[in-house]
Design goal:
proton-transporting ATPase activity, rotational mechanism, 229 residues, 5 helices, ATPase_V1_Esu, ATPase_E_C, transport, 4-stranded mixed sheet, rod-shaped, V-type proton ATPase subunit E2, 66% helix, alpha+beta
């Protein structure tokens, strides 16, 4: 600065300009850094929001899948339970019909069951168990059954002993929960290692297991569609 007239010298003006430019540079740099940092914060928040949204969306999808699975399983259980109820009713009805078989038919049936059991066992010495009430009927068909077996199997007729331990009696209203047997026989090798259970109850169980229908995919689909209506 010129002390005489108070004006700035050229050098002082130059220094002032440099200072102003430097200040402007610092201001621009600070503003640029601020904008970059602000953008980073904004992007980080956006990313966090997107992640939270994706997480919550996945949670909703998982809950929907769980609910769908629970509804489908509940529907299938209902179908299976209804099916089981129907099968049980049919089986009970069939068991009652077995008790109404006439003596002539039951006699022929006993012979057939004995022959079938002998063909399965193919043992020379057999122990036969039946109901106590069927002993005389079994004795009346035993020789014919042995001859028929020997002819079919092309072997000598086996030795058959009727067990003194009998099968349970037929079902009774007096003892509805006790052991019972609707008829038939159980044959075993003398050592008891091979057993052929050929009672009417066992045959009935086999028939119902073989004929029991499976729940088809269509039934499952229909059940789920009904839940959504």
């Amino acid at each position: 600065m010129n002390d005489a007239d108070g004006s700035l010298t050229q050098g002082e003006v130059h220094i002032g300009q440099e200072a102003q430019e430097k200040a402007n540079e610092i201001s621009l740099s600070a503003e640029e850094e601020f904008n970059i940092e602000k953008l980073q914060i904004v992007e980080a928040e956006k990313k966090k929001i997107r992640q939270d949204y994706e997480r919550k969306t996945k949670q909703v999808e998982v809950r929907k899948k769980i609910e769908y699975s629970m509804q489908l399983n509940a529907s299938r259980i209902k179908v299976l339970q209804a099916q089981d109820d129907v099968v049980s009713e049919m089986k009970d009805a069939a068991s009652k019909e077995l008790l109404r078989v006439s003596d002539n038919i039951y006699k022929a049936l006993l012979k057939g069951l004995i022959v079938q059991s002998l063909l399965r066992l193919k043992e020379p010495s057999i122990l036969l168990r039946c109901r106590e009430m069927d002993v005389s009927l079994v004795n009346s068909v035993l020789e014919d059954a042995k001859r028929e077996y020997a002819k079919k199997a092309k072997v000598q007729a086996p030795s058959i002993t009727i067990d003194k331990v009998y099968l349970p009696p037929p079902p009774s209203s007096k003892q509805p929960l006790g052991p019972s047997c609707s008829g038939g026989v159980v044959l075993a090798s003398q050592d008891g290692k091979i057993v052929c259970e050929n009672t009417l109850d066992a045959r009935l169980d086999v028939v119902f297991r073989q004929k029991l229908p499976e729940v088809s995919p269509l039934e499952s689909y229909i059940s789920y569609e009904n839940l959504n209506q």
